[in-house]
Design goal:
The complex is a heterodimer. By secondary structure, chain A is mostly helical. Chain A contains 16 helices and no strands. In chain A, helix 1 (about 10-35) runs parallel beside helix 3 (about 85-105), helix 3 runs antiparallel to helix 4 (about 120-140) and helix 12 (about 360-395) packs antiparallel against helix 14. Helices cover about 50% and strands about 5% of the residues of chain B. Chain B is built from eleven helices and four strands. In chain B, strands 1-2 form a two-stranded antiparallel ribbon. Chain B has a two-stranded antiparallel ribbon with strand order 3-4. The chains are: A mainly alpha, B mainly alpha. The interface between A and B is large, with 74 and 76 residues.
């Protein structure tokens, strides 16, 4: 840690961890309901749990991204944050809006549009909040003596994420048009600009952890994010096959979304190659494990499992079945959850001054949560494929099929328990690190082997 | 070897081209959607129905156009599959229609709102969805319909209300729901008068009946009694 203001990131990370734990609780409620034990139906019916589960995911990931940006950007551009007070205010209001939205869900105050359930007045508050966040970053970068590709890619990703929230608010009475714009938000986020954020954060971590020359890492960063957009933008078409949009989306969406795994494969090869190439072994092996793990699991979850049902011929039968849940869980875990875990694992020792990264607990958290998630994905896969064959291909009744696959949800809940133990270990580790009281290092004594070292004078002035 | 400038150019140009293409396709799609979704038949009732669909978060359990959660049935073709009467009865009291099954919240909709939701589902069901949902193509393997002697077991020869309502809970020839008992041979077990009284009001015969009193007209009951009575082994 080089700048006082980076400490604000800790509070974003801590909020993330708290919301993640809550998300898992709601996941269990749904898992049990699918198993036939919908015991909370009168208090938290399925659609309440579902809206809460997915929105918590979005909020905790955004919180993690914001924390990452507040941690990374000062160090990348070589000056303190523009305003720590604004960052604090922004976290406070984000949490406030989030809590109001989640409590509102329990009183069934919502829009009921998958992933964008939060009511319209709160949408505007989110926009204001994100604008404040972007203003803080913009001013930090504007006033700084240097720009780096990594910080620019990260910034561009966050900016586009904010802009792409707007199409979701275009009013329409036509269900198809509604869905059409909804995917502009959801798809262009997770298979578009969020991957820029991912690329930026991964590049930062690889620069720090492997010691490979910044120029090399950033050059390949451009190639990866280029591939992402080349496939991801028109790949949005895979959501337009069967919702009442023109038939040409079957062709366009099919071809481009079939290319999407390439971007993720590129990301994985990139991370592994840089790690092998790096001569220096950074002591924080745990952060490196999460970084490499993120790139591999995102390829498996988002790339491979996405490809498994993205072709229109396949999707005709899997569209709207549990196969989607299989892909969704591992994709979000691999690409975004593990990414936030990686940056936290890297940042915590610097933020708190405690070097707990090689404890057995850290390794336990990594392996247990990953094995748990792989097992959950398998359970979803078996349930999903069974559903596709019984319901979609043989024409059995929906409820009869659901009863048939209840047993796979027992498997899911068991796997989820293992996953939750792993997450619990990670959160415990977070707790053990304590508050962000780490010393601010002077640039001169860090010895961080980077490409062009940040301007020492500017760093001093900033601190 | 690739330089950083070239890599950056690849990113900028590739992104600009793809986004430009996507933007143009979006304009074209928005121009074509009204025809493909029969927007001219989108009445006020349909619009009110969509609003109810959203504010009740139906997508939190069901899928529509294959989008939503995977806890409750896909409803794109619900109108043609179950008919307006069944959907209305379901919305009035969900748990009465599927007793002891996965539970749906009762929203206490009034009759006007129920009509709006039915109109919305009817409109959605008429969209051109490029072939979705596909007809089950492995069905014949499990259901040897052609081998039975009685032609009444063929779907096309049954009363429409049987295919829409009864089949939701009861099976015939291996096809249908598993909530109530299968109806194969029901005409041999029960006489026509009993079936008629049962369909008119199940609770009059069996106060703790799991089967709900369905919104059936007298003519429909006569049709169903005639059909069910001839289902003999």
């Amino acid at each position: 840690m080089r700048y006082e203001s980076q400490r604000i990131a800790w509070w974003f990370f801590a909020t993330s961890m708290l919301l993640l734990c809550l998300q898992i609780v709601y996941g269990f409620i749904m898992g049990f309901a699918h198993m036939g034990y919908d015991v909370l139906h009168d208090v938290i019916p399925f659609h309440v749990a579902r809206a809460t589960h997915t929105n918590l995911l979005v909020v905790w990931l955004l919180c993690g991204f914001m924390g990452s940006a507040y941690y990374i950007v000062p160090e990348e551009v070589g000056r303190e944050l523009y305003s720590v007070r604004l960052a604090k205010w922004q976290l406070g209001t984000l949490v406030f809006v989030g809590v109001v939205a989640l409590v509102g869900f329990h009183f069934q105050w919502w829009e009921g549009r998958k992933f964008l359930e939060i009511p319209r007045p709160l949408d505007w508050l989110v926009v204001v909040n994100v604008l404040a966040f972007l203003w803080n970053l913009t001013m930090t970068m504007w006033k700084s003596p240097r720009m780096t590709t990594t910080s620019c890619v990260l910034y561009f990703g966050l900016l586009m994420a904010a802009l792409l929230y707007l199409p979701g608010m275009i009013p329409t009475d036509n269900q198809t048009v509604d869905s059409y714009w909804r995917w502009w938000v959801v798809h262009l986020w997770v298979e578009g600009v969020w991957e820029l954020i991912m690329g930026g954060i991964l590049a930062y971590l690889l620069i720090k952890l492997t010691g490979v020359d910044r120029e090399v890492i950033e050059k390949w960063l451009y190639v990866i994010v280029g591939l992402t957009f080349l496939s991801g933008i028109l790949g949005t078409g895979h959501h337009y096959y069967y919702i009442g949009a023109p038939r040409y989306w079957l062709m366009i969406g099919g071809i481009f979304s079939a290319l999407e795994p390439l971007a993720f494969l590129g990301m994985a090869i990139y991370a592994i190659a840089m790690a092998r190439r790096g001569g220096r072994s950074h002591p924080n092996r745990n952060a490196l494990a999460w970084t490499i793990g993120c790139s591999i699991m995102s390829f498996v979850g988002a790339g491979f499992l996405g490809f498994a049902h993205t072709l229109p011929q396949v999707n005709l039968y899997t569209h709207g079945t549990l196969v989607t849940a299989m892909h969704g869980h591992m994709a979000f875990w691999g690409a975004y959850a593990m990414l936030v875990f990686a940056i936290i694992a890297y940042a915590l020792p610097q933020l708190t001054g405690r070097k707990l990264y090689d404890t057995p607990l850290a390794a336990f958290a990594f392996w247990t949560s990953n094995i748990g998630m792989v097992a959950m994905t398998l359970a979803f896969a078996v349930a999903g494929v069974a559903q596709v064959y019984l319901e979609r291909r043989m024409g059995l009744d929906f409820l009869a099929v659901q009863e048939e696959i209840e047993v796979h949800f027992l498997g899911l809940v068991l796997a989820a328990a293992l996953f939750a133990v792993g997450i619990g270990a990670y959160v415990l580790q977070f707790w053990r690190y304590g508050l962000p009281v780490g010393e601010v290092e002077r640039a001169a004594v860090t010895g961080d082997a980077e490409g062009p070292a940040p301007d020492a004078a500017a760093a001093e002035a900033g601190a | 070897m690739l330089s950083k400038t070239a890599a950056k150019r690849f990113f900028v140009v590739g992104t600009a081209l793809c986004f430009g293409a996507f933007f143009l396709l979006t304009l074209d799609t928005l121009a074509r959607i009204p025809a493909q979704t029969n927007q001219e038949t989108m009445t006020d009732a349909v619009v009110r129905g969509k609003h109810l669909w959203d504010t009740s978060n139906c997508m939190g359990c069901h899928t529509l156009l294959g989008e939503g959660a995977y806890y409750a049935p896909e409803l794109t073709k619900a109108y043609s599959r179950r008919g307006p009467d069944f959907i209305a009865a379901m919305l009035r009291d969900p748990e009465a229609m599927y007793p002891g099954q996965r539970r749906m919240q009762n929203y206490d909709f009034d009759e006007g709102q129920i009509e709006d939701l039915v109109a919305f589902l009817e409109w959605v069901g008429r969209m051109d969805l490029n072939g979705f949902p596909a007809e089950p193509d492995l069905g014949e393997v499990s259901v040897p319909v052609t081998s039975t002697d009685s032609s009444v077991a063929r779907r096309s020869d049954r009363p429409q209300v049987f295919n829409q309502m009864c089949i939701a809970c009861h099976a015939l020839g291996g096809q249908g729901g598993a909530v109530g008992p299968a109806l194969d041979g029901v005409g041999g077990r029960l006489d026509a008068d009993y079936i008629k009284r049962w369909l008119t009001d199940p609770f009059a015969i069996k106060p703790n009946s799991l089967m709900p009193k369905l919104p059936l007209s007298d003519a429909t009951i006569v049709e169903l009694v005639a059909f069910l009575s001839q289902l003999k082994d």
